[in-house]
Amino acid sequence: MTQEVPSTDPAVYNAYKEKWAVAPTTAPEWLTRAREVADVLATDAALRDQDNKSPVAEVTLLKHSGLLKILGPTKYGGGAQSWDVACKVVREVARGDGSIGMLLGYHLLWSTTANVVGTPEQADRLHERILTNNYFVGAAVNPRDDDLKITREGDEIIFNGFKGFTTGGAVSDLMVLEGVLEGTELHVFALVETRQPGLSFLHNWNNIGLRLTESGSVRISDVRAPWADALGYDAATQQPLPEILLIQYPSILLPTLQLIFCNFYLGIARGALETGKDYTTRTTRPWPYGGGETASTATDEFYILERYGKWLAHLRAAEALADRAGEELATLYARHAVDHAGLTAAERGELAEWVASVKVVATDVGLEVSSGVFEVTGARATSRKVGLDRFWRDIRTHTLHDPVAYKQRELGRYLLLGEYPAPSWYT
């Protein structure tokens, strides 16, 4: 049973349900909608970050915007957009609020998991359920925790255990659970209803960054799902389908997730740059003790112009790299939308290295911009009211998710030895 905790009020966003009643239909329209959402979130992002309330209202805003449906099939009200567009949308939302950009990105992955590891029938059934109800999807799949234990009972599987991280879980409608079937080494994914006695959220996420992601822990006690919902399994035999178990296609789930990470890093960095620019142009004063001729405004200061110019160039380069990786991802999904078995290890490996390249660059640029922005805004910009610190805290928090040094080593082996990384929970 989920305890009562302070949460944001969905009523503050009531007007957007009508304003955004008509869903976008083209990629430019989806990006425009994402910018609108980011602008709404940015108005009070610093205050909401400090309050650290459960993001019920923010998830409601995402539902009003239609962005939760961007990848789904049109027959159920989805946007039928490709992953490169979805990644840009995540980046835009993160510009306004990194936590909500992260929630959106995770939802897009978990709500389409059946496309990758499930059967066509399972994917279609889940699309209908998620899209027609405008559901938000969370997950308890952190692989470094002990796996959930799954037992069989007739036509059902039963999950038990504990997960330390469950991004978006406590504010979700459905949860992806994953564990190991008792007596085997077989992993099982299934989506279950969030609001049930067997899921007990601890609401213990109080970290320095991404404070509105509800990424805390959950206890899972006797949560049941029918074998028909075990993704990629035959309900009659209760065994994984060979055509899913023995192919590369399910392994693209992880490069997809890693590219989502990269895009919300870059969105947060762009938010830091824009917030810093606004503060510098309106508030920052020139330094009068530098010797020689004193600049009349902060925007005449050589070092300020130089820093902003450098960051803009590097951020644009990182965004271009992310867009290229997004195109590679979308192309691979489109090429193998029907012929999953045709995906080769080389195709998967090339995609993973495009994504690894983005991860390295997005981490470097994001940390540099979000920490360096204080140097061009001044001491008064450290006020909590300004909230510039949230950008660095958000990027710093998530870039520790998995060490970027391993991505750099991976790229080195790819370049020098021609090796592709073995598919894993982090590659």
Automatic annotation (TrEMBL):
Residues 259-401 form the Acyl-CoA dehydrogenase C-terminal domain. Residues 37-132 form the Acyl-CoA dehydrogenase/oxidase N-terminal domain. The lineage of its organism: Eukaryota, Fungi, Dikarya, Ascomycota, Pezizomycotina. Transmembrane segments: none annotated. The keyword Oxidoreductase applies. Keywords: Flavoprotein, Oxidoreductase. The keyword ATP-binding does not apply. PANTHER family: ACYL-COA DEHYDROGENASE (PTHR43884), ISOVALERYL-COA DEHYDROGENASE, MITOCHONDRIAL-RELATED (PTHR43884:SF12). One of its GO terms (molecular function) is 3-methylbutanoyl-CoA dehydrogenase activity. GO terms for biological process: L-leucine catabolic process. This is Acyl-CoA dehydrogenase C-terminal domain-containing protein.
